[in-house]
Amino acid sequence: MEKESIHDYEKPSVTADIVIFTIEKEKLKVLLVKRDLNPYKGKWALPGGFVRINESLDDAAKRELEEETGVKDVYLEQLYSFGEPKRDPRGRVITVSYMALVNSEKIALRASSDVSEAKWFNFSKEMNLAFDHDKILNYAFQRLKWKFEYTTVAFSLLPKNFTISQVQKIYEVVFNKKFDKRNFNKKIISLNIFKEEGVNKNVSYRPPMMYSLKKNIGDIVSII
Amino acid sequence: MEKESIHDYEKPSVTADIVIFTIEKEKLKVLLVKRDLNPYKGKWALPGGFVRINESLDDAAKRELEEETGVKDVYLEQLYSFGEPKRDPRGRVITVSYMALVNSEKIALRASSDVSEAKWFNFSKEMNLAFDHDKILNYAFQRLKWKFEYTTVAFSLLPKNFTISQVQKIYEVVFNKKFDKRNFNKKIISLNIFKEEGVNKNVSYRPPMMYSLKKNIGDIVSII
DNA sequence: ACAAAAGTGTTGAGAGTACACCCATGC
DNA sequence: GCATGGGTGTACTCTCAACACTTTTGT
């Protein structure tokens, strides 16, 4: 096949851009950075940067994620690669996009980002971002919904111990609809993925049972 | 964020590699090419090649697909990008993988490929391919099963008009299990995605109804 | 008449959905 | 005692799975 040599073609740049989601105050939020260089100077964009020559794609995404949020060991998954020749006016840039889910309690935005401003925004479908980042963001949101429906990624947005109503709330945020409390409890308990952790006493109402996720849960097929 | 310039970093090569599936004689087949250069000289690999500097990722995949099979306008979808620094001994090569589904009747393998040999193989989970192509192939197979379950991609493997038992057979091949004929018919007919095209008379048994896929079917949620 | 595949219904089990009231705590 | 969210059961519908015989054609 390859008479073609690795040196025959002009090479593109490759970046890893990350859609970092969190849920705070019952809103789905996404982390954006303000561009301080042309093109799109002053516009908001997804955090990201060039993949180093000796760094895997995942490592590049992890590095960018940690640079922006200070968090490690969070849920991170590759989404899709975007490579239209004209998507970046600076030249040929192929972007491998990632999605990260972080628990809002763990976030420590880099205190003073020397070159850029980073900020959490409420997610919406039209955020008017730089480059084709609206497209990437919407792709990520689709994937998020899918993953919520069929896997346990939702729990990466929650602390180690949580109540069922916390779980229900993040599902309601992501699907933008209400679920019946009784049916939700029944369904999620019947999956047998929770361990009871005792009741939380610091509330001025009936103290809720706290749960944690069991270890070694296989691939769950359907949550909702 | 980006003090980094597009020129600051050594750039990787980017290839598009394609997992081309077909079903023939009730077997799932994948198209492989024999490498005639080192590394992995003599080993079989997925068809693919470098993405040109002015070509989108999809276009690169389409070009490679047509070069190898002579087919156009078939089902093609991007899968995942693989970018471990050492995955290709020749240097840093990031591969954007694709999956194509072709109807075996339409295939015309390039009569004499000047530099390589291309051949259909029965799919198996351990084909011992060059590079990390076993990993890519298995990823593609997982995606294939998922797409069969939740979308109508299966029909890209069939001619325009088909019988229900042809549909059932390709599902049985992909999932490697038998389905009950009555339940299968009921389910697939109830989806209301078929148009009747009359009976096929050239058979020595009760002539089956031929169907075609309706146009403008939305995203089907669950086939099986 | 026989070989080959097409076509067709019913039943039982389990899952999903709709729906409303009492409970435990802090103040 | 009241405000707050926590916790629970039943009935109906719908979907899924299991299961076997008759029909139509060509030879």
Radius of gyration of chain A over all CA atoms, rounded:
20 Å
Number of helices of chain A: 4
From the N-terminal CA to the C-terminal CA of chain A, the straight-line distance is 47 Å
Q: Level of helix content of chain A? A: 10-25%
**Structural class by sheet pairing and helices of chain A:** alpha+beta
Give the overall form of chain A.
Answer: elongated
Which CATH architecture of the largest domain in chain A is right? Alpha-Beta Complex
CATH topology of the largest domain in chain A: Nucleoside Triphosphate Pyrophosphohydrolase
Kindly report the oligomeric state of this protein: homodimer
Could you walk me through the main structural features you see in this protein, from its secondary elements to its overall organization?
Two copies of one chain form a homodimer. Chain A is of the alpha+beta class. Chain A is 24% helix and 26% strand. Chain A has four helices and nine strands, in the order E-E-E-E-H-E-E-E-H-H-H-E-E. In chain A, strands 1, 2, 3, 4, 5, 6 and 7 form a seven-stranded mixed sheet that branches. The longest helix of chain A has 18 residues, at 133-150. The interface between A and B is large, with 44 and 44 residues. The structure holds a DNA duplex (27 and 27 nucleotides).
